Every structure is written in C-alpha cells, then in structure tokens.
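Structural prep section.
Before we set up the soaks we want a predicted structure of the protein with S-adenosylmethionine in place, mainly to decide which crystallisation condition to try first. Input record follows.
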Amino acid sequence: MSDQPYHAPVEPTPGSLPTSYWPGLEDHEHSRWYTERFRAMAREGEDLEGESRLVDTLAPRRARLLDAGCGPGRHGGHLARLGHRVVGVDIDPLLIEAAREDHPDATWLVGDLTILDLAAQGEGELFDGVLVAGNVMDFIGEGHRPEAVSRLAAHVRPAGFLVVGCRVGRGFTPGDLDAALPGTGLVLEQRFASWDLRPFHPHSAFCVSILRAGDGSGGR
Ligand SMILES: C[S@@+](CC[C@H](N)C(=O)[O-])C[C@H]1O[C@@H](n2cnc3c(N)ncnc32)[C@H](O)[C@@H]1O
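Run finished without errors. Recording the tokens verbatim:
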C-alpha cells in the first residue's frame, strides 16, 4: 500500500460531472463531524451492525470481504472482528485515517469506486462478498453510478455477492441499479426494504439488493 498522499479524482475530466458528491471532500470539518458522530453512537451502545450482520450471514467463514464506500469503517471493522479478511475503500482520506485508527484489524485504502482497481493497490484477490452500505450510491455522481456498479462487479469472485443498501428517492433508485447490471455478470437475487429483511414494495423508502455473480459454469 502506498503512503503517498492521495488526490481524489473528484473531477477527472474538466467539465465532466464529479464522481462524488460527498461533502467531506471539500469540507474537512464534515468528515471530522461524521467520524465523531459514529464514534459517539458506538460509545452509547447503539446498534451500528445491522448491515454487517447480514453480510456475515451471506459469507463463508473467514471470507474475503470488501466494504465499499466504507467511511470510518464501522461495517468492515465489525466483519474483521468476526474473523473475516476485510478491505475497506473510500474516496475521503480523512475517513480512511479514522478507519485505520479505530479498526486496525482490516486494510483501509483511499480509492474512487467509479474507477476502482484494487489489484493496482496491491489487493488483487477477488472478494467473496462486497458491501455498499450507508447511501454511498446516492453520493456517487450521477452518470458515474453504472461505472461504480461495473467496477464493483469486477472485484467479486465467481458465485460471490454484492449487497447494495440505499435510501430511495434522493438520487439512486433500485431501477438504476437494475439498469446497471447487464454486462456485469451480476444478477438480482433478493431485494428487501431494510437490513433486517422486511419485504420490499414499490413505495419502500429504503432498498437492500443482494446481487450474485455467475459461478462461471454458464448455467450448466
Ligand atoms: C454516508 S457515508 C457512508 C459510510 C459507510 N458506508 C457507513 O455506512 O457508515 C457515504 C460514503 O460514501 C463515500 N463515497 C462517496 N462517493 C464515493 C466514491 N466515488 N468512491 C468512494 N467512496 C465514495 C464517502 O466518502 C462516504 O464515506
């Protein structure tokens, strides 16, 4: 892993839409506030692990897991404590710094999901499962979300899974996710309205989609 400062490619081509709308990239106070908010909730004993409990259920033991858009690392940190081999990646360097401080059992990398190439960052082994939680898809720039889905799919091993949880109606929609799937090798396996698996309805305010990669047999 490189210790060189990372300059987030927020606007890779002049005039093109940014790849991230995350406020912390321009306002470091926001990143510090966000980190402290979750640290305080953890100290107060709030349940911050619903997302990672679902991933633990889906995953084999000692799985290789990717926490994509990990922020300060609450999901990946929990999964590492459960014995999984976790890599977390996020575009905000301050949040990655916090994840490294709070959850030293996992590997934390700065990266942009829309151009994700973890092999180039020394993490070439594909993942048993990938988690995208906490409205990350809403913060990825419009027009770049299909690229993020495709780059995430490229990091999933055959028969592995990608779980995407996001609020509905603020930007990204379940329909956007479905439209991004052709050509990625992922298919929608299950869709729920919450991390504790309530049924999804067209009017649900939240959506958890479990996507599965083909097993490489071509359906034989
Ligand atoms: C609301 S936070 C969620 C953090 C974490 N997943 C959680 O649930 O606690 C959204 C995260 O998406 C990350 N993000 C936004 N755009 C991104 C991009 N293009 N590539 C990587 N991470 C991105 C932000 O930096 C931020 O950490």
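Observations: The domain at 48-213 is CATH 3.40.50.150 (Rossmann fold).
Flagged for discussion at group meeting.
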